[in-house]
């Protein structure tokens, strides 16, 4: 938690400095660099093959991000981001429900297309690092970091709307190219509801909606 607070304070100080630089640049008619913060909701799941009849449902989670966009005079631009993203899914087997939680630190890199100053399209790739992974079935809670791949990579695309100065409204879809879970050959013990053996292909899929402010 201390590390996350330190990152947040650093980001706020950086954004404050950038806002002052933008004010100075505007007075000299220089294209503005942009930075901002956003908060929103994730609707995530893990898309799998060979689910053995298990039912996987979407899970809701939190996303918080900061971004930086170099100054540009044209339609095409670039953006780099740092995102905290809570993802996962819910798994139903018989009468029991298991909630899987995977927390990632994501680093998206986007090409941006500005369609007027009120609307922007974004497309690119991202790399993620797993911070935490666990499952919860009733009162039982299990650490799943050893079963989950630390590195996740994939593609993302979305849009943002700027209704008036500073405000951001947007949405995004991201998907993995690599497996979420490690390929393991150990079989589940008799009577286990949630097997530790993941021998199927597994991909993250996340829809995010958010609001924010840019400087």
What's the architecture, going by CATH?
A: Beta Barrel
Q: What number is the mean pLDDT?
A: 81
- Helix/strand order, N-terminal first: HEEEEEEEEEE
Query: Termini separation (Å)?
Result: 27 Å
Number of domains: 1
Structure summary:
By secondary structure, this protein is mainly β.
How would you describe this structure to a colleague?
This protein has 215 residues and is mainly beta. The chain has one domain (34-214): Porin, CATH 2.40.160.20. It contains one helix and ten strands; from the N terminus they run H-E-E-E-E-E-E-E-E-E-E. The protein has one helix spanning 2-27; strands at residues 34-48, 55-57, 59-69, 76-93, 96-114, 119-137, 140-143, 151-161, 167-176, 202-214. An eight-stranded antiparallel beta barrel has the order 1-3-4-5-6-8-9-10. Strand 6 and strand 7 form a beta hairpin. It is elongated and about 55 Å long. It starts with a helix and ends with a strand. Mean pLDDT is 81; it is low at 15-30.
Looking at this protein, list some descriptive labels.
12% helix, 8-stranded antiparallel barrel, mainly beta, 215 residues, 10 strands
Q: What's the structural blueprint in terms of helices and strands?
A:
Elements: H1 2-27, E1 34-48, E2 55-57, E3 59-69, E4 76-93, E5 96-114, E6 119-137, E7 140-143, E8 151-161, E9 167-176, E10 202-214
Antiparallel strand pairs: 1-3, 1-10, 2-4, 3-4, 4-5, 5-6, 6-7, 6-8, 8-9, 9-10
């Amino acid at each position: 938690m201390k590390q996350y607070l330190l990152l947040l304070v650093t980001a706020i100080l950086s954004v404050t400095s950038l806002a002052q630089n933008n004010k100075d640049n505007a007075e000299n008619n220089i294209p503005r660099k942009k930075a901002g913060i956003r908060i929103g909701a994730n609707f995530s799941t893990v898309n799998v093959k060979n689910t053995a009849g298990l039912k996987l449902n979407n899970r809701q989670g939190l996303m918080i991000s900061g971004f930086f966009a170099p100054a540009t005079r044209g339609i095409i631009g670039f953006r780099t981001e740092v995102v905290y993203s809570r993802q996962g899914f819910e798994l139903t087997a018989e009468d029991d429900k298991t909630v899987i939680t995977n927390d990632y630190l994501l680093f998206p890199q986007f090409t941006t297309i500005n369609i007027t100053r009120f609307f922007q399209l974004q497309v690119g790739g991202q790399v993620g690092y797993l911070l935490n992974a666990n499952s919860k079935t009733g009162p039982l809670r299990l650490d799943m970091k050893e079963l989950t791949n630390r590195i996740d990579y994939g593609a993302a695309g979305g849009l943002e709307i700027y209704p008036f100065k500073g405000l951001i409204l947007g949405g995004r879809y991201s998907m993995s190219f690599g497996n979420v879970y490690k390929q393991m050959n150990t079989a589940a013990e008799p009577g286990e509801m949630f097997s530790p053996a993941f021998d199927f292909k597994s991909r993250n899929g996340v829809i995010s909606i958010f609001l924010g402010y840019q400087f």
